[in-house]
Amino acid sequence: MTVIVRIVAPSTAVVDRSKAVAEGGIDGAADRVGGTPTDGGVGSLATIAAIRYAIFVDEQGVDVAIEWDEYETVAEHVLLVDEGRPIGTARVRRADGALKCERIAVRASDRGAGWGERLMAVCETIARERGLDKCILHAQRRVEEFYHRQGYGVVGEPFEEAGIPHVEMRLELTD
Predict the structure, then answer these.
(1) Structure confidence by residue, pLDDT tens digits, 144-157
(2) Which residue, 39, 40, 95, 152, has fewest beta-carbon neighbours within 10 Å?
(3) What does DSSP assign to residue 90?
(4) Reported pTM
(5) Rounded to 5 degrees, what are φ and ψ at 38?
(6) Separation of alpha carbons 47 and 86, rounded Å
(7) Residues 70-85, buried b or exposed e (16+ Cβ, 10 A)?
(8) Which helix (H) or strand (E) covers residue 32, if one does?
(9) Measured between alpha carbons, how far is 98 from 55 in angstroms, rounded to an integer?
């Protein structure tokens, strides 16, 4: 069974505890958190932090100092868990009259199985729940085609973010 965990606007203390265990690995993050407010379970912010650390910091070389930013406590964090195993995550927040989809990540071992599409569908559902009619994101150029397949179009010129080439993309939501 697949479960979608949504964590809305976590406190600074929860974010800090989660960051502290992130580098320990995805499957062990929740265990190391114990009984803290992150809940100590697989559906915790610590698990989200560990997925982001594994993908953005370890795999892609993003500086850990910029992976977590001032938006963590105002954003909604999404986690997909399948059969008790954390699969992928996204972070969303309102920006410029749209839902900005950020930190979208699927475990390397689970890519190509439709989980990214499922994460994007959850993001679009959240946008509709909030009465927004578009989603925006900064796509890494290497996965730009993935977002095109989801209906996103390029807006503007390519740019660099965290040392990685990106492009802004937008999806106009319809009923």
Answers:
(1) 999 999 999 999 99
(2) 95
(3) E
(4) 0.91
(5) -75, -10
(6) 7
(7) eebeebbbbbbbeeee
(8) helix 26-33
(9) 26
Amino acid at 166: H
Domains of the chain in start order, with CATH, are 2-172 (3.40.630.30)
Q: What is the residue whose two structure tokens read 């999806």?
A: 171
Q: Which residues pair with 88 in a beta bridge?
A: 80, 106
Return the closest-CA partner of residue 115 out of 138, 92, 146, 137.
146
135 in Cβ contact with 123 (< 8 Å): yes
- Which amino acid, 59? E
Question: Do residues 117 and 110 touch, judged by C-beta distance below 8 A?
Answer: no
Assess contact for 52 and 22: CB atoms under 8 A.
Answer: yes
> What does the pLDDT look like over 32-46, one tens digit per residue?
544 443 444 566 888
